[in-house]
Design a protein that fits this description.
By secondary structure, the protein is mainly alpha-helical. The chain has one domain. It is built from 4 helices and no strands. It has helices at about 1-50, 55-100, 105-135, 155-165. It is rod-shaped. It starts with a helix and ends with a helix.
Length: about 160
């Protein structure tokens, strides 16, 4: 009986690190979901402008909506990959407890699951990083964003740098 309790206590100690990792992924998923909600809200706001927009403004709105759609796809992929990573980490914890309870060697399975989880998390973070890049690419603090500009011309970061230059 004492050996069983010691064995379970050891498995719980091994499971603590993946559980902390799950907490970090949950926080990341919260950030990604918030970003997605803001993108969707902004897209709806721009879509509502279409009926009353001038012809020059509608092209600006279309470009802005395409950018928002690209960002939403990136965030969506990030959410999916990070969620799959969390599922794989849960599988690691389940495998640890199953191995302790039923016996057997699941070392290879745990290794594969954990490496897979880290790869999924890494790619999910890369999608997140790309979305951050896109969200700040056209950002001009102090100047109106292209979709708020009275002119229909869209100024990119590169165009602005060339104009200064």
């Amino acid at each position: 009986m004492s050996t069983d309790i010691t064995s379970i206590a050891h498995v719980i100690q091994l499971a603590v690190a993946p559980v902390f990792l799950l907490s970090g992924i949950a926080a990341l998923l919260n950030v990604l979901n918030t970003r997605l909600s803001r993108i969707v809200d902004r897209a709806r706001q721009l879509q509502n402008e279409f009926p009353s927009a001038a012809p020059t403004r509608t092209e600006v709105l279309r470009v802005s909506l395409r950018r928002l759609a690209a960002r939403a796809r990136l965030v969506s992929w990030g959410i999916s990959l990070c969620t799959l990573s969390a599922i794989m980490i849960n599988s690691v914890v389940i495998a640890l407890f199953t191995s302790a309870s039923l016996g057997g060697n699941v070392r290879i399975a745990i290794t594969i699951l954990f490496i897979g989880a880290m790869l999924l998390l890494t790619v999910g973070l890369m999608f997140f990083l790309r979305e951050i890049y896109l969200s700040t690419r056209y950002l001009r603090i102090g100047e109106p964003e292209p979709e708020h500009s009275p002119a229909a011309e869209i100024v990119t970061t590169e165009d602005a740098d060339r104009a200064k230059g």
